[in-house]
Amino acid sequence: MITAQELTKRYGDRTVVTDLSFTVRPGTVTGFLGPNGSGKSTTLRMILGLVAPTRGHATVSGRSYAAHPAPLTEVGALLEARSVHPGRTARHHLRALAHTHGIPGSRVEHVLARTGLTEVAHRRVKGFSLGMGQRLGIAAALLGDPAVLVLDEPVNGLDPEGVLWIRTLLKSLAAEGRTILVSSHLMSETALTADHLIVIGRGRLLADTTVADFVRRSGAGTVKVVTPDAAALAGLLTGPGVTLATDAPGSLTVRGADVEHIGRTAAAHGIPLYELTPSTASLEEAFMHLTHDTVEYTATAEGAAA
């Protein structure tokens, strides 16, 4: 289990993370999402003891990362996959890690096989592709057979087969009862992999819930309505948090009101409905809807920064 309690980090007069509290529980894949500059990387580094919080604290399996006598056997982490001596082979790199952490050498061959690197384990890391480097980083994270995994962008550089492999791997590790925290920019992949989401913006917690609940509560979904009296219905539905668009004569797209509310309103005023179809938002749409006020920059349609 990973627990963050009121984590705050300041650099001079700039606050990067503010009073961030959450719990990552065993047996689930938890996606850690946020726009660029939201404080995700800083938070991960505070959890792993690489950055000291200004206030608050984080624990992994009940103690700080630094307090674990053999951290690699408790917590596996992937932050920068290329932070490996380029002159070493993959096998040499993993053997060195195993030796310094008291991990049996047999684990080296096990993780090489599990990450698909056995056939290239004799090659020097400087010749590895980005995807191969990611696999080596994941192999290092798995080396100590840890109960907790913290992975930053694990599918970066992987081909479609590799993306499917990491998705299957993370789900199987969670099914074994391990705690999995995964940061990613790929919403479509997160939707397929994660069970739970922690979403931050400008260093503050925005959501801590299941993927399904996050999408449902985001307000990003829409309802298509076809009626011969669209203008009257639009007037009745107009209110705080409700937006309406006219796609064609007699057709409305409603955001911010559910099917039940629209149906009851139409029935109460004798307005016939020919179609009433909800459209569930994707995780990406829900994420963009929630975080649009927390991004550090946006771009115009022409691509100019705004």
Automatic annotation (TrEMBL):
SUPFAM superfamilies associated with the record? P-loop containing nucleoside triphosphate hydrolases (SSF52540)
One MF annotation (Gene Ontology) recorded for this entry: ATP binding
- Which Pfam families would you find in this protein's record? ABC_tran (PF00005)
InterPro entries associated with the record: AAA+_ATPase, ABC_transporter-like_ATP-bd, P-loop_NTPase
Which keywords fit this entry according to its UniProt record? ATP-binding, Nucleotide-binding, Transport
Q: Which domain of life does this protein belong to? A: Bacteria
- All copies of the ABC transporter domain together span 2-227
Instruction: Write out the similarity annotation.
Output: Belongs to the ABC transporter superfamily.
This chain's protein is named ABC-2 type transport system ATP-binding protein
| Protein's organism | Streptomyces prasinopilosus
